[in-house]
Amino acid sequence: MTAITSALAMLWGIIHVSTAAQSIDSHLFESCEKGLVQNNQLQDEYTGNSYLECMLKCGQTSGCQGVNVCPGEVSRQVKCTLTGEGSPGSCDGLAAATSPLCFHAVKGDHSSDVSQAPGSEGVTDTEELVSTTPIPETTSNTPTQTTTEITCGNGGTPNGDRCQCPIDKGGKTCQREIRDCLEVYDNGYVDAANNNYYDIKPLGSAGSVQVKCEIENGTMATYPLMSTNMALNRDWNNCRDGWEDALGTQPNYFIGLVNLFHLLKQAEYDLNIRFVYRENNNDIHVVAIYRNFSIGLEAESFELGMYASFDDRRSTAQNGFSMYPPIKFSANAAPRIEDRVCYNLRNGAGWYGENCTGYGLFGSNKIWPVNGANVTFEQVYFNFIRRSGFYDE
After folding, report:
1. 71, 228, 271, 336: which has the fewest C-beta neighbours closer than 10 Å?
2. Helix/strand/coil (H/E/C) assignment for every residue in 344-381
3. pLDDT of 202-217, one tens digit each?
4. How far apart are CA 14 and CA 170, in angstroms?
5. 192 phi/psi in degrees, rounded to 5
6. Separation of first and last alpha carbons in the chain
């Protein structure tokens, strides 16, 4: 199988397209290295629901030589940018993309193959080649099947069309580190994964970070922040890079905002913020639940994603984040003056909206709204539950 047809087959497998969808266009595409895109002769930009829509749009656009495909602003959408005549029409001369999930696909014109195929006269780009090309006779009614056993790395073993990985490895062929706790669960290590600490390496992270894994409502949750002694009054660099004061029975750690950005960029996650506070000498546990939670880069002040939504039906705490975007992170000693304003006004680091509205989670006040009143919490936990597959697999 050639590189072009192999790449096309991969795309079909990812998107689960039907045979009818393949008939829309007869051009094939070769996908280039991930993380690189074409910046020359950019044409129109579109938003689609899959990589395939980008390919089809290019195939139907006169003069299109290729297409850049990147994650969209909305979960499970993609952004397509067509490249026109004058671009290399190959994987040469590509530049680094804004996201490691972006890639460039080159359109290959196979009209010469079509014109030489027997019985293919008059075939147009929107007709199926298979419908006009004679099918060779076979001497057997039994279809020929070719199976290639998958090759596993890092101690993995073949298991159908993918590998059974060791507890700390992930991916179809166990080629990488695990990216979150759900991968440990999906690898079959249910008992071992629950209530244990593991090193994860989210897509795009510079290195591995340790988190606690715990089963939450029948699935595996990843805890990037756990604080039981509430030493949270941290400056910008500490919040950005994270800390690890203690693990085990009295955990106080945070993987940092940069690693949190990479964790949430690789798939769709729900956030459960769990609070513990004292009332009448009892520990009271409440939770604030957010769907499709994400944050921006440091250059964007780790701004909360605009598509997150508060689940008031399942939450037992109220929404403490501001209702007035943009909701950006503020902390002491931030490089930019504007990222220190709300910290100084509200006496603590955290995400704040317009006019410094909202409740900071990393400050010394340690308050959050519950049942119409502000409570002072003693412990806080972030746990994330993945709701989709990884965007690059």
Report:
1. 336
2. HHHCEEEEECHHHCCCCCEECCCEEEECCEEEEEEEEE
3. 999 999 999 999 987 7
4. 17
5. -70, -30
6. 21
